């Protein structure tokens, strides 16, 4: 009877394990390749600018006294809420901020998505400006830290 049970044991779990192991290795390889690419990018001027743009892009914004996350995941969530607000002007949502949940109307949601989109675009615009500075041979290390949205522009040192 035990031999009959052993013969009846399906081999599918082994195949599933093998497929899972292949997928795990694929994800690990892709993750390493992305990390290597990011390291390589940060060693070139345009890569450093892109990394700095991303840092500014995901830094968040203050809007009407509330802090709004501008990370990539949050941008997607905000865009989804905005689509719902456009489709239904009576739509409202309880949005989580670092200070807690707040109620937003459809009009307010559209205001939030507009502000986030403007912030993100300003980051890409600054990146484009700095790439022109590379082309012109006029990029300085200080420029990499100046002029990003929601960040103070440094004052020139008194002479």
What does this structure look like?
- The chain is mainly alpha-helical and 159 residues long.
- It has one domain (15-145).
- It is built from 5 helices and 4 strands; from the N terminus they run H-H-H-E-E-H-E-E-H.
- The chain has helices at residues 2-8, 12-42, 45-57, 72-87, 106-136; strands spanning 61-63, 66-68, 92-97, 100-105.
- Strand 3 (92-97) and strand 4 (100-105) form a beta hairpin.
Give the percentage of residues in beta strands: 5-15%
The number of strands is 4
- Strand sequence of the main sheet, in spatial order? 1-2
Helix proportion of residues, in percent?
55-70%
Keywords:
159 residues, mainly alpha, two-stranded antiparallel sheet, flat
Describe what is shown at a glance.
62% of the residues lie in helices and 11% in strands. With 159 residues, it is mainly α. Strand 3 (92-97) and strand 4 form a beta hairpin.
Give the arrangement of secondary structure elements.
Layout: H1 2-8, H2 12-42, H3 45-57, E1 61-63, E2 66-68, H4 72-87, E3 92-97, E4 100-105, H5 106-136
Antiparallel strand pairs: 1-2, 3-4
Helix pairs in contact: 2-3, 3-5, 4-5
